[in-house]
């Protein structure tokens, strides 16, 4: 891989570190590995986890949902639509090239062209290098979320990518999908997709204050949760995520392992395609489906209580959370709605779900299919690994599809931008709205919220959106997925974990 120009130097440093007894190796297992090395190819948790290992953002979320300086050392708002970012000097890419403002501008322009990210950056009208270490960002109106958005700017090595070929190939084969030059704490020494990714400590890493002592990190994707847990308990790996609800107590009670849990903000939903299946275009049918699915039962029986029952997208604490909305499981009401809609005898529909992306994803879908059968909806369910599922999701290949979403900006509007706004390939809005739901008022209020700086007005807008989505049964809200990680004793994971589920492994300390 072209990224390994300095591998010999890195290896020499590792040998020296090992000789001093300070080199540490982390063997860790996730349920899947990233589908690509291109940080702009797919907006997903796996991609962002990789980005925090190999790249660095302009600013980074901290545990208090505030912003810490990273590549940007400071920032200043010039007026309602202008922000200056001051770029850290002396930062080198893995290629050896020095990072400048031009690399940041190049990265922002590339993000604006990415099918998955351009919706987030649609309001950034321009990015300009004022000098070598200052970037001016202008927005197309007052923006309450400019720093939220800046957490997604992981500067790329302009010379490296333009020389090799900087095409963003969705589910394709491109230079950027196989080669990487970032500024992060790790380089990639070896990658065999679906088998192993080996990371080596970046010998030129700029953050000399980082407490991290991991010199080699080896990611082994283990799709099956029992196998992943067994690997931790046997000592084959040092750190795993996610931890299945069925094994929380087992790990917590093991003296050789440590469990860390957090209340999550990722909503798990089912989307109903109103264009593929005529019945799903009827609001009463969609309401019937929402009433038929016992999401509280799913949390208790399938999730073992490790989740929070949902009636909307916005979790409590988010500005758009509407306290008036409650879950509405009622089978008799669902049957009555089916009859009112003219579907007393039911109908058939296809459903697709991943089987290794969300906790108990395929089991949830199996349960939902069984619940829908009770009101006459015959479900043809197909489940598949995440790598195969996402292309099918992009195709809208089934009548009902599962999608989980953690707000990319830690803000309610982001749910709407990607999950419930009218799909628009030109702007990226509705990119993950596989149900093709469309409501002009939802679109209008969501867009207005992106430039409204009055907090109460903005909250009213976004809570109204949640009410509309609830009334129209725009999707099936299931639950917010709680988070759990586990590590062997001596691997101090708690300080590097956060509610976004982006472990900052560059700062990880292994004590023994």
Features:
single chain, 512 residues, alpha+beta, 11-stranded mixed sheet, 4-stranded antiparallel sheet, 16 helices, 19 strands, globular, disordered N terminus
Describe this structure in words.
With 512 residues, this protein is of the alpha+beta class. 30% of the residues lie in helices and 24% in strands. The chain has 16 helices and 19 strands. It has helices at 7-19, 45-54, 101-113, 146-150, 158-164, 175-178, 225-233, 248-252, 283-292, 295-302, 331-340, 361-373, 386-395, 412-420, 440-449, 455-471; strands at 24-30, 59-61, 67-69, 72-79, 82-87, 124-131, 134-139, 186-192, 196-201, 214-219, 239-241, 257-272, 307-309, 347-354, 377-384, 400-405, 475-488, 491-492, 509-510. The strands form 4 sheets. Strands 1, 8, 9, 10, 11, 12, 13, 14, 15, 16 and 17 form an 11-stranded mixed sheet that branches. It has a 4-stranded antiparallel sheet with strand order 4-5-7-6, with helices on one face. Strands 2-3 form a two-stranded antiparallel sheet. A hairpin with a 2-residue loop joins β6 and β7 (134-139). The protein is globular, with a radius of gyration of 23 Å. Residues 1-21 have low confidence and may be disordered.
């Amino acid at each position: 891989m072209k990224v390994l120009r300095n591998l010999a130097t890195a290896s020499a440093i590792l040998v020296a570190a090992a000789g001093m007894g300070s080199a540490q190796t982390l063997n860790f297992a996730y349920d899947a590995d990233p589908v690509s090395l291109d940080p702009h190819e797919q907006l997903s948790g796996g991609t962002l986890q990789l980005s925090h290992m190999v790249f660095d953002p302009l600013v980074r979320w901290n545990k208090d949902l505030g912003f810490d300086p990273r590549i940007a050392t400071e920032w200043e708002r010039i007026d309602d639509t202008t922000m200056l970012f001051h770029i850290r000097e002396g930062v080198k890419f893995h290629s050896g090239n020095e990072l400048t403002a031009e690399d940041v501008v190049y990265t922002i322009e590339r993000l604006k062209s990415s099918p998955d990210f351009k919706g987030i950056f649609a309001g950034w009208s321009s990015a300009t290098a004022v000098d070598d270490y200052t970037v001016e960002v202008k927005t197309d109106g007052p923006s309450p979320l400019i720093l939220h958005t800046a957490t997604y700017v992981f500067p790329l090595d302009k010379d490296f990518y333009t020389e090799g070929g900087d095409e963003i190939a969705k589910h394709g084969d491109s230079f950027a999908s196989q080669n990487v030059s970032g500024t992060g704490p790790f380089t990639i020494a070896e990658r065999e997709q679906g088998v192993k990714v080996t990371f080596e400590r970046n010998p030129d890493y700029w953050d000399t204050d980082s407490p991290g002592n991991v010199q080699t990190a080896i990611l082994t994707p283990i799709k099956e949760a029992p196998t992943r847990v067994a690997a931790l308990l046997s000592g084959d790996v040092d750190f795993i995520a996610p931890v299945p609800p069925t094994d929380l107590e087992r790990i917590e009670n093991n003296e050789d392992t440590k469990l860390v849990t957090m209340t999550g903000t990722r909503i798990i939903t089912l989307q109903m395609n109103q264009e593929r299946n005529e019945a799903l275009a009827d609001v009463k049918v969609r309401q019937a489906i929402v009433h038929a699915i016992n999401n509280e039962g799913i949390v208790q029986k399938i999730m073992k209580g490790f989740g929070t029952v949902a009636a909307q997208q916005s979790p409590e604490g988010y500005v758009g959370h509407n306290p008036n909305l409650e879950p509405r499981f009622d089978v008799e009401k669902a049957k009555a709605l089916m009859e009112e809609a003219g579907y007393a005898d039911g109908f058939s529909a296809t459903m697709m779900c991943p089987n290794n992306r969300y906790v108990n994803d395929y089991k949830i879908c199996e349960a939902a299919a069984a619940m829908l059968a009770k009101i006459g909806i015959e479900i043809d369910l197909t489940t598949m690994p995440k790598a195969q599922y996402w292309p099918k999701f992009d195709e809208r290949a089934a009548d009902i599809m599962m999608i989980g979403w953690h707000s990319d900006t830690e803000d309610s509007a982001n749910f709407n931008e990607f999950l419930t706004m009218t799909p628009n390939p030109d702007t990226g809005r509705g990119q993950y709205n596989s149900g093709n739901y469309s409501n002009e008022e939802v679109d209008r209020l969501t867009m207005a919220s992106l430039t409204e700086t009055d907090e109460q007005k903005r909250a009213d807008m976004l809570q109204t959106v949640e009410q509309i989505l609830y009334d129209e049964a725009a999707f099936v809200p299931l639950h917010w997925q709680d988070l759990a990680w586990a590590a062997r004793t001596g691997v101090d994971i708690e300080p590097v974990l956060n509610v976004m589920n982006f472990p900052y492994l560059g700062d990880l300390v292994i004590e023994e």
